[in-house]
Amino acid sequence: MAGEQFVEHARDGDVHVLRLANPPVNTLRTEVRAGLLDGIQAAQREGARAILLIGNGRNFSAGAEMTEFGKPRKPPSLPEVFDAIEQSKVPVFAAIHGNALGGGLELALACHARVATPGAQVGLPEVKRGFVPGAGGTQRLPRLIGLEALRIIVSGEPVTAEEAQKLGFVDAVLPGDLEHAAVAWARENAGRQFTLARHRKDKIEGFDAAKFDEAAKKLTARSRGQESPLGCVAAVRAAFTQPFEEGLNVEREQFTRLVQGEQSQALRHIFFGEREAQRIPDLPADAKPLPVNRLVVIGGGTMGGGIAMSAANFGLPVTIVETSQEALDRGLKRCEANWQRTVSSGRLSQAEYEKRRALLSGTTDFEKAVGEADLVIEAVFENMEVKKEVFGRLDKAARPGVVLASNTSTLNIDEIASATKRPELVVGMHFFSPANVMRLLENVKGKASSPAAIATATEIGKRIGKLPVLVGNCDGFVGNRMTGKRGPQIEKLLLEGCLPQDIDRVMESYGMAMGPLATGDLAGLDIGAAVRKARGTVAPVADAVVAAGRLGQKTSKGYYDYDENRKRLPSQEVERIILDLAEKMQVRRRKIEDQEILERVLLPMVNEGARILEEGIAYRPIDIDVIFVNGFGWPAFRGGPMFFADRLGLKAVRDKLAHYAEVTGDRNLQPTALIEQLAKEGGSFATLKGPAKV
Question: Does 550 fall in a domain?
């Protein structure tokens, strides 16, 4: 029977159980759909009184098989399976454990009723992949729960089974063994009259267009150019205003339009890329992470505290080490305040806060704490001499075989490791600020770093909720090295005709959370000035802004002026600084079009990304894109800098780089050998075969 191995058909008396069996997450590939259709038909022929759908393993179903997207769909389609459920004279129930997401939840919504285990997660995350639910989710969910469906669909965020029961699309939450409890529930309720979601009208009657529009406006306020949230709004609106079949047509039109678009391709590029980035090609198969039961973080400042919070958030005991009791108390209080804000917002329970806080401790006894550590992460001031001094002490205090990691964002890991007698156990673990929030973790491999050390850093990163990406050792690693290359062009744009708000407007319209100049104000312009001084480089505009005492938000003035609410306002003083410099440097100002601004900010990063690949600092182009999306505010629906280059076309990238190199005199913009080669061959970054060796 087609699909039989992907759907197990069991019988418990007059209740037939169809178990989805497509590990690890039971995606609804062709064979699963066929197995469901066959199983439903067979159960009806055999006189079943109820049919129960349940998942094998840890999940009900994570939804559609995205690797089938863009390929000819083989029958049966999900709507055909749903038609069979909805036309069945035998009630079909879904029993949900783990996750029911996307098409998995849509399958459950087509059933006559749904039961779930406590804590199961249900949701429609398609918006995060750049499209709308495409198998009736935007039509059935509103008919079951009304306007709350808009929030679930537009946000893409899952809810628990308990919340789903309160909202009205889970009928019962069953503790204990789910299949046993669900079979009993199905048998008990098989004779009830159930109204299918498609026939429900009570939750969509009396449609209030103004209330709907207000909710939609709030939910899409931060979409920043992403199309799928607006597509979701249009599809859900149809559920309230059109008959079911016509609403399905609106949903299908939105799905088809969006799934073929560049934004969805970019989001799926990142989705699969985040999986690919976890694969370290040259890590030996027998490389095992070292056991870590206690983490020690050296330094309780903003970064150290955030790292410690991340560990405690995911159940790993952690100790902060500080040089004084005053500094330690300050660091611990900052962690407590961060957690308490989350409690106040309702996103964290008091009980969970107390559980996390109990895992966090602090001490000023360096040797004792380090001697008990299974892994040490140093998070002190970004200065090589300071770091080497700390690592010399760590090497003496830590037990043999313990990995020592540095949270440096730019410094040479090999030089840091030289302060120890265990360079093979030294790695970089570059967290991003705020470390308790940001997902990216740039793990840095030194020339001596052992497979065990790399495996340990990778495993701990995953364990504390981070997305670890392994990179090679160089100044700035991947992300900071690439963003550093846009600085000279931003300076030139300011002198040639732009003001800070012009550049930030273009980048924020592209989808960046914050433009580069506003970001500089947030971080503090004195930090960049100190880096330039240490490296002996100059940036005329930035240096002049800092010389005027404008250090960013902390002084209420940087590239912008800031009011008491930290709202940024264009600065007349900065405009005068720029105009005076341009006149002094004899730069003739002109109107610069938005496309030129976009290209001159992004293409220097693309070119540097190509150099990073040539040098083997990153394994793959997708690693670079994943780093930028998860650590630098690059909008996921734009796919990252290397995806941007591929969409532009590498011949165009080469020609534009050569043009800007010539007209601006920026030698860094001369196209790299890799871009020249790919442009000549008609290739792309996506076609690069085999990882570069880090």
Answer: yes
